[in-house]
Amino acid sequence: MATCRAxxxxxxxxxxxxxxxxxxxxxxxxxxQRPFTTRLCPLTPAAAPGESRSAVxxxxxxxxxxxxxxxxxxxSTASAxxxxxxxxxxxxHFSDLPLNRSGGLRSQEQQLQQLLSEPSTRVLLLHRGRLLxxxxxxxxxxxxxxxxxxxSLQAHSFAKHGAEAPDGGPxxxxxxxxxxxxxxxxxxxxxxxxxxxxxxxxxLFLGVESSGAAVFACQVPAHLLPLLPSTDSSPQExxxxxxxxxxxxxxxxxxAGPDAAVAALAAGLVQWHASAAFCSRTGAxxxxxxxxxxxxxxxxxxxxxxxxxxxxxIDPAVIVxxxxxxxxxxxxxASWAEGRYSCLAGFAEVGETLEQAVAREVxxxxxxxxxxxxxxxxxxxxxxFPSSLMIGFIAEAAQQGSAAAGSTSGGGNDAAGISxxxxxxxxxxxxPALSAAxxxxxxxxxxxxxxxxxxxxxxxxxxxxxDARWFHADWLAAATGMGGQHAAAxxxxxxxxxxxxxxxxxxxxxxxxxxxxxxxxxxRRAARAADMAAELGxxxxxxxxxxxxxxxxxxxxxxxGSFKYVLLRLSTPDGLHSKLLVRGDARAAYHNHxxxxxxxxxxxxxxxxxxxxxxVGGGRIEHYPEQRAAAVYGYSAAFGQAPHHxxxxxxxxWLPFHEVTASYDGY
Length: 667
Description:
Blueprint: H1 2-9, E1 23-25, H2 72-81, H3 109-116, E2 122-127, E3 130-135, H4 136-139, E4 145-146, E5 153-155, E6 173-178, H5 193-198, E7 204-208, E8 214-219, H6 235-241, E9 244-246, H7 248-251, H8 257-275, E10 286-289, E11 294-297, E12 315-324, E13 327-332, E14 344-347, H9 354-366, E15 370-383, E16 388-397, H10 431-440, H11 444-451, E17 467-472, H12 473-479, H13 491-497, H14 512-536, H15 541-552, E18 556-557, E19 561-571, E20 578-585, H16 591-605, E21 612-624, E22 629-633, H17 644-654, E23 659-662
Parallel strand pairs: 1-21, 2-8, 12-16, 18-20, 22-23
Antiparallel strand pairs: 2-3, 2-6, 3-6, 3-9, 4-5, 5-6, 7-8, 10-11, 12-13, 12-14, 13-17, 15-16, 19-20, 19-21, 21-22
């Protein structure tokens, strides 16, 4: 390493033996120093043992766009559609009900009583809104009974053998079921079948299995509670008896889909009955009717009117993935686990459409306006905890005028208040930012690629959210493991998983929010794939390999502390496809060292492709991960001053929790 650095400092150059040469173009500060192509000795960019290095090495999937322009219409269509390319409908978690609801039986009291006498009928037990379950690992052996001898309960899974939990792996819980006869108090006074049936608690009819067996749910009868673990029992007591009551909302994600759906239906119905014990008009007690799907006053109304039955209410709530180009808006509540972000959501109000509820909730919680014309329904999910229906949307933020970066005058309107056309190309930059871009040869398409869209400012309502921010699709795909087999996770995420920071997470696959986020990412990926296919046309397969090699090079790789950095353009041999890179190393004494280290990195990653590397200026970066801050400033005597606003925009893609600033002062 010392020898290599000495050679670099003295200007010596050597070729790597047996490695295809990499074309490197340097744009020197002086006009007399013309660009040249050479072979460079590498400065190994890897950190030595014990050194601290914060390399953000997620591979970009958004920069596989030619310098000309991308097919915006294709991206818009795929984004609006949500990118759901699955060949068949996959029910969200809590909705894959394996029962026939058999609504016609609900009003047939005689048939329901007959079903209760069938030996195949099963009853799920709940207490204080919690479902009685057993560990799935213990129940899988078959024939295992749970509970005390006088109440021998059987595990009853509604899922197929080998079914997994939503996030993969075996389920943790399986419902326990009793027969109707086991629920009877067995008192001496119950001398007839009618009296025994009357002594049973309210049994709520859930439906019929494909085998013909009926399934009911009920609150645990009072006389059986001493035989079962309390909801307040210690973990040791619960483990000793092998069964426990669990909250379906939190533990349903650890059940197989069909089991969770039946559990959610049972929990929702039981909770509704508990909250509708009395008539809201007269205060009279209500009795269970319709097989548990309605309640009717036990006595006629005092005014002589016909008793009015009530039915389970459903509270519609909207949840939305709000995009802005390749950026997605996510937020978090203070009560959530650290690092957890999700889609914005809220209840629909009286007199508004669901689309209007989306726009209102997003504006109230984040201050971001939503384009109603680009708001599309995606899917829904029952959330009976106690009575919600989550209705999912994918929407686009309303675009506003483009203000130039680097300008000292804010806003996009002139002094007279007349609206100006949106800035495009290098017009996105002003003042020293524009001068730097012109000096180093930044392309207009590059300015648009990294400075657009201009994201609406986020103004969080602290009463609603603790935080909300924009996340780039590339970073989000890598951070959540949705970037495909070739996408590497950002180093910030890897460091977090080792305890250096709080890990970023989104809700698991059990939640509709996860489905919306994944679908949005698929939509962006599909749009880019369509763009690439349109550009490649009839070109040979080797052209696609070149683009894959281009995408595999990390966009950003910077150090910690204060160091020199270089903005570089990496392009295919024909120059039709390119992307910008940010490289900075605290060990580099000169900007040229950073350039040559990057050249070695590209040679090692794609030795046979012949990718071209050229400088687009340089400067300094102060990067402090603990403070989540990065400042870009200064210039390079060798390569000129980089357009730091473009560098800052690229850093924000891969450092979403950092405050990144840009200035053109200092060295």
